[in-house]
Amino acid sequence: MPKTLCDKIWDAHEIDDGLIYIDLHLVHEVTSPQAFDGLRLAGRSVRRPDRTLATADHNVPTDGTPAARLIADKLSRIQVETLERNCEEFGVPIYSLGSDRQGIVHVIGPELGVTQPGMTIVCGDSHTSTHGAFGALAFGIGTSEVEHVLATQTMVQKRPKTMRINYSGELGTGVGAKDLILATIGRLGTGGMAGHAVEYAGETIRGLSMENRMTVCNMTIEGGGRAGMVAPDDTTFEWIEGRPAASADFAAAVTQWRELATDDGADFESEVDIDAAAISPMVTWGTNPGQVVEVTERVPDPAEWGDGKSDREVAARALAYMGLEPGTPISEVTLDRVFIGSCTNSRISDLREAAAIVAGRKVASSVRAMVVPGSQQVSIQAQKEGLDEIFTAAGFEWRTAGCSMCLGMNPDILEEGERCASTSNRNFEGRQGKGGRTHLVSPKMAAAAAIEGRFVDVRSWS
Amino acid sequence: MKSVRVVEGGVAFLDRADVDTDQIIPKQFLKRVERTGFGEFLFYDWIRDGEIELEANPILVAGRNFGCGSSREHAPWALEDFGFQAIVAPSFADIFFNNCTKIGLLPVTLDEDPCRALAAAGSGRIDLETQTVAWDGAEASFEIDPEVKHRLLNGLDDIGVTLQRAEAIDAFEASGRADRAPVTTAL
In angstroms, rounded to a whole number, what is the distance separating the alpha carbons of residues A145 and A150? Predict the structure, then answer.
């Protein structure tokens, strides 16, 4: 019987009915301390420290603070130091502040090559779906499950339903992976993928780089999806080859990975077709990622938004929070802040795209703009290429690796009422700081917005 | 985990759809390394700004897609610590739903009309054994995965249950099926 990519991975990892083996468990400081405490209380150990990897990302300041003990915020310092102590005690490898491998957990996994096709991967973070870009089955989990995986290297799970989204056509100039996934969530809604492992397929996806596939899979959770995946191909294999964790017998690994793609004729519970050529640069106007329009459109009238009373009510509240009037052209929305970073868009290709836009230009005087590389390795590479100088010459702040302003758990936050163009993944109320107003966009759109001080259509902007 | 069988009493109503976990427990409270004491920070901004009022009743009725966004288990911890024992909504985000079942906070999926009727009644009784919700002489039934139900009814510790299957995990590892994954300690 023909099988989907998801089913193949599931079958290869099902130990027993509803119990699957986990190949890689990524750990960070925010969702793990209570799990390690639980282990200690029960006298349990970490079953497979050699399949576990930790880093500090959510809490870390991005001002170059070189060690956990030097973090100024007391609670953040305690949390990162607690992670370091827990990893020491339980034998878990960790790249904390001060390591040149530290960075956002979903950036460093692929970067080190520990994220590989056919694996099951979990992390106490909803954006774990990012790793699915490599043809892995990757879930975000809560702290009780973190403890469960630490203790047993397994997860109690039901096989997810499967959905395939088929993209056809080529993305237009200036339109990127971020626009593709925002347009998809806009169409399906924030609960449209609920309960499903979503396979992104079709010629458009085949044409995307690994970084771009990660951007797409990363935001699966914003559509409510359990996991996002892309079948591995030569693009995937070339990306992994030569990375620190790549197999010594790489050719043999590739031979196995080639078997993973969904078989012809395999059944999905749900299939959607999307014309990628028709996608425009997207800008969110509301307080969830499904509240999104094309850059050439206007802020919608809540009375005409979505289907049903709930959607209209949510839209009306969102507009009030965002301080926007229906009918305002998106291109007239002015900005106070620009953030380029997060596990969605902080990889080297994201920074290259943004740098190409800002090169030789100046950030608008009304805007404070920052670039936060996703990892120390991204930062090192960007500096080799001189991207940091392009950004700083334009007036951007060049920061050190971390989650930064994506979630405001560190000093990088919006002030009350500030409006931000952000390459991150969530425009929820208060996400980037209490009262802060977030508009999600691609790195190119964020870079151009920083220069103009308002949103512009990068396709016609020069 | 404590067991859940019947949740009975007053209903609090949060008449909003797509409530995300950033609202349930804002990020600044995730820096704590303890598992308890999150209740006072529940819906911190919304309650402090006077946008909503919530009574610490046993039952919370909420809108569709409740608990979307971040995987933070701090959200169910805060709801439970505040006093809720069950949450009734037309739909839940997957990870949030899962997280609730891990701590004995009962998530109940009911259509929007019965949700509103239960909220209007102001009190109700949820029986997990019979999978029914009763209020004001009316009743609705709900679906729940049999295994999740079993664990909730018996207050079973997930890890303990899985460790009873340790032999199967050992056998899986011995079969070599787990050997292909990269070794993180060798980097």
Answer: 8
Calculate the CA dihedral of residues A9, A10, A16, A21 and round it to 10 degrees: 60
| End-to-end C-alpha distance for chain B, whole angstroms | 37
- CB–CB of B64 and A191 under 8 A? yes
Which of B64, B73, B163 comes nearest A310 by C-beta? B64
Closest-CA residue in chain B for A83? B33
Confidence (pLDDT) at B62: 98
Contact A343, A403 (CB under 8 A): yes
Task: Supply the pLDDT for residue A307.
Answer: 86
Instruction: DSSP letter for A52, please.
Output: E
pLDDT in tens, A233-251: 999 999 999 999 999 999 9
List, for residues A11-70, the tens digit of each pLDDT value: 999 999 999 999 999 999 999 999 999 999 999 999 999 999 999 999 999 999 999 999
Distance from CA of B168 to the nearest CA of A (A): 7
B147 contact A CB<8A = yes
Q: Which of B15, B30, B31 to probe the A interface (max A CBs under 10 A)?
A: B31
Could you give the maximum distance between any two Cα atoms of chain B, in Å? 64
Q: Please determine, for residue A76, whether its predicted confidence score (pLDDT) is greater than 90.
A: yes
Condensed to tens digits (0 to 9), the pLDDT of residues A138-184 reads: 999 999 999 999 999 999 999 999 999 999 999 999 999 999 999 99
Q: Mean pLDDT lowest for which of A436-440, B87-91, B107-111, B153-157?
A: B153-157
List the single residue in B22, B64, B162 with the smallest CB-CB distance to A152. Answer: B162
**Two structure tokens written together for B25:** 């427990």
The dihedrals phi and psi of A439, each to the nearest 5 degrees, come to: -115, 120
Of A142, A151, A149, nearest to A121 by C-alpha is A149
From first CA to last CA, the distance across chain A in angstroms is: 53
Q: Which residues are CB-contacts of A70 (< 8 A; sequence separation ≥ 6)?
A: none
**Do the Cβ atoms of B71 and A140 come within 8 Å?**
yes
Residue A311: CA count within 13 A, CB half-sphere: 16
List, as one string, the DSSP characters of chain B.
----SEEEEEEEEE--SS-BHHHHS-GGGGG--SSS--GGGTTHHHHHTTS------SEEEE-SSBTBS---THHHHHHHHHT-SEEEES-B-HHHHHHHHHHT-EEEE--HHHHHHHHHHSEEEEETTTTEEEETTEEEE----HHHHHHHHHT--HHHHHHTTHHHHHHHHHTTTTTTS--GGG-
Q: Model pTM greater than 0.80?
A: yes
**Quick one: pLDDT at residue B1?**
86
Residue A248 is given by DSSP the state S
CA dihedral A79, A85, A90, A91 (to 10 degrees): 110
Closest CA in chain A for residue B162: A152
CA distance A459 to chain B (A): 31
Q: For the segment B48-86, what is each residue's pLDDT rounded down to a tens digit?
A: 999 999 999 999 999 999 999 999 999 999 999 999 999
Distance in Å, alpha carbon of A66 to nearest chain B alpha carbon: 20
Question: A144-170 b/e with 16+ CB inside 10 Å = b?
Answer: bbbbbbbbbbbbbbeebbbbbbbbeee
| Complex ipTM tops 0.95 | yes
Asked whether the beta carbons of A52 and A87 are under 8 A apart, the reply is: no
**Ramachandran angles phi, psi of A122, nearest 5°:** -130, 160
Instruction: Give chain B positions within 8 Å (CB) of A82.
Output: 33
| Whether the predicted pLDDT of A462 surpasses 80 | no
